[in-house]
Structures are given as C-alpha cells and as structure tokens.
Amino acid sequence: MFKPASEQANDLNALVSPRRSLISLLGLGALWVTFLLALFAANTANSAPVVTASRVWPAAEYTRITLELSQPVKFSFSSIKNPERLVLDLEGIEPNEALTGLSAKVGESDPYVRLVRVGRFKPNVVRVVLDLKTEVKPSVFSLPPAGEYGNRLVVDIYPHQAVDPLMALVSSPRQAAVGVEDAARGAEKVAVAPPPAVSPEVAQPVPEAIEQPKEVMTEWKKESVTKPKANKRKPELQVTRLVTIAIDAGHGGEDPGARGARGTNEKDVTLSIAKRLKAVVDNEPNMRGVLIRDDDYFIPLHGRVIKARKVSADLFVSIHADAFIRPEARGSSVFALSERGATSAAARWLAKKENEADLIGGVNLDVKDPYLARTLLDLSQTATINDSLKLGKAVLNELGDINSLHKGAVEQAGFAVLKSPDIPSILVETAFISNPDEERRLNDEAYQDKMAKAILAGIRNYFAKNPPLAKSRLALAD
Q1: pLDDT tens column, 68-80
Q2: pLDDT band per the 50, 70, 90 thresholds, residue 203
Q3: What's the pLDDT at 31?
Q4: What single string gives the DSSP state of each residue in 181-225?
Q5: I want to staple 257 with a disulfide (CB 3.0 to 4.6 A). Which of 64, 72, 172, 251 is the partner?
Q6: How far apart are CA 459 and CA 476, in angstroms?
Q7: Which H or E element spans position 321?
Q8: Strand bridging mode 315-322 / 243-249
C-alpha cells in the first residue's frame, strides 16, 4: 500500500531530523571545544612567566647561573662598579621560592659571586643583583627548550682576564706529592686539586719547561710492543720532553650526559675516571696530564678543542659512558673522527647524540668565536686521523683486558670534540651506563682505576711505536 507523497516526505523528515540534530549538536560541540582551546591558549600566552628552577655551577674558569622558566622572559642587564655588581632586570615575573632561593645556592667558595639579592625594582620588573668578588666579564643569554630543560636564562660570569690553561699544569710540591700518593694507593679515591686562581692584575709565571720544551728534547727509544696477556711489561721509554695528554671528561654542569637506571650521571663518572687518568699520567716520568674539565661545569665542544690546543697537547682523550635504548647493550668502545661519514649506524647515532651536548649544556650562539673556524677544521685531516686510529687501536686492545668490547675495531664518526686538525684525538666509551651491570662497575673505584691504567697502557704502546715530534705552544691569543 502506497502512502501519499506528503506522508512519505513527513516520514523522511522524521528519519533525517534526529541525524540533523545530532550533527548540529556535534558541530556546536566542536565550536565550543575550539573556543575553549583558544581561550586556554590566550590565557597561557597572557600568563606571567614563572621561574621553575634555579641552578648555580661555580668553577675556576667561570660561574654559571641558570634560571629555568615556564616561558621566555624579557630581560636586561648592566654592570656597576665600586663595589662590583651585576644587575639583571626581569620583566613580567613575580618573585617566588625558586628565584629567591638562588641566594642560598651561592657558596662561599664561589670564585666570582659573593651574594645574590632578589627584589621588586618597579611594577612588573624584578631585579636580581649579584654582588661580585672581583671584576668580571658577564654574558647573559636565553636558551630555548632542549633535552630535559624548558626555557632558560643563563648568566655566565667569566674572569676579567681569562685563566691561562697552562696554569693547570702548575702545582705546589705538596699538591704533586698528594697526586703521587693517591696514584700509588690504587683503588683509593684520587684527590686532584683545582688549578690556582689567576689574579687579573698579576701575571703569573709559566714554568720554564712549558715555554721551552725544545731544550729538554732527546730521543724516544722505540720498542715493538707485543701483547701477551700474561707477564706484560711496559715499553721501555727514555725520558724526552714532557708530552702533554689532554684529558676531557665528557659533559658537565647543565649537561648531565646519559643517566643509568640507578640515577648515575655520565658527567660524574667521566670526571672521576678523568681525574684518575691524570693521576697515573702525571706519575709517568715523561708525561703530564691536563684536565679539560676539572669540576662540574659545562664547556662547549669547540672550547674543549681550543683548550687542548692552547696547552700544545700531544694527544686528546675524551672520556664518556655509552647509553642505548636497550639495557642489554654492553662493552667498551673507542672512536676516532671520520671525514667520510660514520663506519656504522650506531657510530652515526652516537656522534649525533654527543654533538647535541652544546644544545643541552647551553652555548651562547650570539657570540662569534674567532677561533671556531680555525679550530673545528673539516679540511684534510688524513694524517691526524690516521694517528688517531693508531692511538685508538692501542687503547682498545688494553680495554679488552678489563671489559668486553662492544666492537672489536675502532669506529669513526663526525664527533665535534675530536676535530682538532693537529692533535690525534679519540673518544673512549668506557662502558654502557644504560646497562645495570656496567653502571654498577662504572661506580666502582677499582674499575675506574683499571680503566685509567688501561688507557695509559694504550697511550704508552702508541708512543712506543709513534714517538712524539717537537712541539711549541700554539699562538692562540685570548
């Protein structure tokens, strides 16, 4: 039985109307959601920035103060004399515990900052005053979110006259004696004194042996180095000039590096092993070690290369602790620079991760470094890379005696920290901090000592076959 057309139209409307109503409701709901999101975004944009954390990293080279913020903040700064002060004005923020608590984080031993005062300067402006101990060269800059950090405002306080890296080689007889005693104790913790502070007004003398290395030159006695694992003896090396080993503890300060499951920071492990390596190197009659980083502070990657060149280093050894997404990854590795790309996908990934340290640690990109173009050379480095591979192989052979090897050969990739054009340079991944068993070993002082001694043995074996040439200090002005 057929219904009239009018009744059929009514039936169709009855079916369609609920759907139309539902669509209308959904459309209205979408409009409300869009409106609420826009309102939330507007409120977030208009909300005042908040200081979420503050940190202080004091060191002889410079002191860094970091303010972490919920969003970027407008700022200005100025220096005031008699007495020396640094004034930092922050716009649109309210004083809170994270900011006012900054004063308690400045220790008496800080070489540059005496006191921090925080207060409202005028409506909508908070003033942070740093009372200083001496004349300084400040650098204030902002950083976008990177790694585990949000927006940051960084205050770097450098000495008015830069500290000469060669002064790190100067120590009192008592300090030298302590270093030898600690090295002899083996598993006991090595105490390495920081380099003495350099007064801006008084130029301290450089030891004669440093400025005139050619006067103590003789010949190195070569010896073919075989490696029977039992009854291994040191290559016989006659004392020549003192060769300088630049020892770079990876990461530091704002950049913790990798973290183990038990909370171990890579930067702490690398610094401990680096200090132990310096102690055993200094105990050699023909070697001296220079720590690129002797405390918990950040140094840009190219700054590490520059410091090694300023002390005319013969070798550069960067200490790290590897990490991977899978906890079962294990073993020690050695890396050298590559001009033609990485030797494996893992090496490429690791180089990318290590080269991002500048983003995490925080580099002021507005400063044009006059040495950067001359130091991080991507020119022909074939000879230096070949020497780096020889050094890496000698060290890797020794590491195989104390730990399993992740790869049995030296790998290569574009590590920025290895780009010195004239210093054989290697990066040692001591173990996987992401592996629970190896993390435990990395925290063991006896293992750290074994690692330091194995690296030294590799260096000795390298020099036995590749005697160092005469070198003079490079003229890199401050």
Answers
A1: 999 999 999 999 9
A2: very low
A3: 61
A4: HHHHHTTSPP--PPPPP--SSSPPPPPHHHH-GGGG---PPP---
A5: 251
A6: 26
A7: strand 315-322
A8: parallel
Q: Which is nearest to 76 in space by CA: 138, 32, 34?
A: 138
Pairing of strands 125-132, 151-159: unpaired
Query: Which amino acid, one-letter code, is at 283?
Result: N
pLDDT of 156 above 60: yes
Q: Are 335 and 425 in contact (CB under 8 A)?
A: no
Residue 435 has pLDDT above 60, yes or no: yes
* Nearest-5° Cα angle at 232, 230 to 236: 165
pTM attached to this predicted model:
0.72
Q: What residues does 249 pair with on adjacent strands?
A: 319
Task: Write b or e for each residue in 168-177: b if 16 or more Cβ atoms lie within 10 A of its Cβ, otherwise e.
Answer: bbbbeeeeee
Domain 51-159 in CATH 2.40.50.840? The answer is no
Comparing C-alpha atoms, which of 178, 367, 355 is closest to residue 283?
178
**CB-based contact 321:432 (threshold 8 Å):** yes
Looking at domain 165-465, its CATH class is alpha beta
Domain boundaries, the chain: 51-159, 165-465
Q: Provide the β-strand partners of residue 358.
A: none
Beta strands in 349-424 (DSSP E): 411-413
Q: What angle do CA 366, 368, 373 make, to 5 degrees?
A: 135
Instruction: Give the span between the Cα atoms of 9 and 12, in whole angstroms.
Output: 5
Q: How confident is the model at residue 363 (pLDDT cuts 50, 70, 90)?
A: confident
Q: How large is the average pLDDT for residues 389-397?
A: 95
Average pLDDT over residues 210-214: 34
